[in-house]
């Protein structure tokens, strides 16, 4: 990655963050408390602080701009609820001034200093970290019921035709992950620590759905009493199903609205139809769009109802990339060119409102559609390190999630296109439904079509 591309990504990231913050009235920046989001001004200041720590301090030994704020911008030194204490933090203009000061310094350093591999890696890491926060700033608007952010136009750039059924993946030896040691670690082989080191795995043949589970398919489960049938739910799922939750934010209520789950979080039955809240508006449920904002437990229960199962994360990656040892390596389902709007729903524009059969140009080698973007896809796998795992420069990128989180794959509609690739692993607790999560399924092993050609 050349200096010009780094500067382009840095500027896009700066402008996107500024837009997400400055398009809201200052009073709206005090978002209601929710455990899955952060106040937008804290996200902005935290991102700037990350550049200070992991670019200027590591490369130049430069102290921070305002040491008195270090503990407040550092996510591991300030408790989550304290980020809502406005007495601790500057207002919008001062936060913007700090943010732009740091971004200007980063841009100047890229332009004037030699671009070593270490510097290139750290620049990319910090830029991608900021794009993770751009994604969370977008889902924050959904969580609290704010208007859609600028740039979201719910467009449909890549219509497709019906694409039903399963893709058949043959048995064999497959390559998983990214290189652990590579001379191109800062360029073509850039990856986060949990994606490394790569390894081979032998899999039996399996059949995986070509498309994501749609709202229409999930609606059938809801209307068949799926949330009232405990036999469809695992122990963890039943515990979640019986847990009362305050969904006042979902319905724009100033008073607590306590209930147990009866359907996906942002659905309601109103005016004799199912509706879905998309940012600040309720709209008729789009039956062809993917079911979104569902927990792992809901995905698992739907599978039991449908006689299916979730893929393991290795099955998912093989179906998405089809990488084999000694063969040309794919970073995306279609090859190695960066995602664009013809291949994937990313960058917070269409927001998972297109049909599950759209984006045919993004198909994987086996014909699986929307393996990049749209929704983070639940797998059955726990989030564990690969054998040979080594902590990266940011020690908390993965380590705090190992063990009790589930692996999701593929990226979502709010994910930045510069961030995602087919080996990327995202960890979420199985109860999360505030993020853009969905799923696809596999045939049960005894029903996998192993007698078919290629299986």
What does this structure look like?
- This protein has ten helices and 15 strands.
- With 455 residues, it is an alpha+beta fold.
- It has a four-stranded mixed beta sheet with strand order 13-12-11-14.
- A hairpin with a 2-residue loop joins strand 7 (267-270) and strand 8.
- Helix 1 (3-22) packs antiparallel against helix 4 (92-112) and helix 2 runs antiparallel to helix 5 (117-144).
- The radius of gyration is 22 Å and the shape is globular.
- 42% of the residues are buried.
- The model is unreliable at 450-454 (pLDDT under 50).
Please provide a brief summary of the model.
The chain has 455 residues and is α+β, with helices and mostly antiparallel strands. 29% of the residues lie in helices and 13% in strands. The chain has 10 helices and 15 strands.
Key structural traits:
3-stranded antiparallel beta sheet, globular, 2 domains, 4-stranded mixed beta sheet, 455 residues, paralog of FGE (formylglycine-generating enzyme), alpha+beta, Four Helix Bundle (Hemerythrin (Met), subunit A), 15 strands, 29% helix, 13% strand, disordered C terminus
């Amino acid at each position: 990655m050349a200096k010009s591309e780094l500067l382009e990504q840095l500027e896009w990231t700066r402008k996107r963050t500024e837009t997400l913050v400055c398009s809201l009235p200052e009073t709206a920046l005090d978002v209601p408390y929710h455990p899955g989001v952060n106040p937008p001004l804290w996200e902005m200041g935290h991102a700037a602080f990350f550049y200070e720590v992991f670019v200027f301090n590591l490369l130049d030994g430069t102290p921070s701009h305002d040491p008195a704020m270090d503990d407040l911008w550092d996510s591991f030194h300030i408790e989550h609820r304290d980020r809502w204490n406005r007495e601790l933090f500057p207002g919008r203009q001062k936060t913007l001034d700090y943010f732009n000061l740091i971004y200007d310094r980063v841009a100047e350093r890229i332009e004037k200093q030699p671009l070593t591999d270490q510097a290139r890696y750290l620049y990319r890491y910090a830029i991608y970290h900021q794009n993770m926060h751009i994604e969370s700033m977008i889902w924050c608007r959904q969580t609290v019921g704010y208007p859609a952010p600028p740039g979201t136009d719910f467009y449909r750039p890549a219509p497709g035709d019906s694409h039903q059924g399963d893709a058949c993946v043959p048995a064999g030896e497959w390559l998983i992950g990214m290189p652990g040691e590579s001379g191109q670690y800062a360029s073509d082989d850039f990856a986060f620590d949990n994606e490394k080191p790569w390894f081979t795995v032998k899999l039996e043949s399996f059949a995986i759905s070509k498309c994501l589970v749609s709202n229409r398919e999930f609606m059938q489960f809801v209307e068949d009493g799926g949330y009232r049938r405990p036999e469809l739910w695992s122990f963890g799922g039943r515990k979640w199903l019986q847990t009362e939750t305050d969904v006042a934010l979902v319905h724009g209520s100033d008073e607590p609205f306590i209930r147990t789950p009866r359907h996906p979080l942002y659905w309601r039955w109103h005016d004799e139809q199912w509706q879905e809240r998309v940012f600040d508006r309720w709209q008729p449920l789009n039956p062809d769009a993917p079911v979104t904002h569902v927990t792992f437990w809901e995905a698992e229960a739907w599978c039991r109802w449908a006689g299916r199962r979730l893929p393991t994360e290795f099955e998912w990656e093989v179906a998405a990339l089809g990488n084999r040892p000694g063969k040309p390596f794919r970073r995306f389902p279609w090859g190695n060119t960066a995602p664009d709007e013809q291949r994937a729903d990313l960058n917070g524009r269409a927001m998972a409102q297109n049909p599950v059969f759209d984006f045919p140009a993004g198909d994987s080698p086996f014909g699986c559609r929307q393996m990049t973007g749209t929704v983070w896809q639940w797998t059955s796998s726990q989030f564990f390190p690969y054998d040979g795992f080594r902590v990266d420069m940011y020690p908390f990128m993965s380590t705090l999630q190992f063990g009790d989180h589930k692996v999701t794959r593929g990226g979502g509609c709010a994910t930045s296109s510069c961030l995602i690739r087919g080996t990327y692993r995202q960890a979420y607790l199985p109860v999360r439904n505030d993020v853009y999560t969905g799923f696809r399924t596999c045939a049960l092993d005894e029903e996998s079509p192993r007698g078919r050609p290629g299986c």
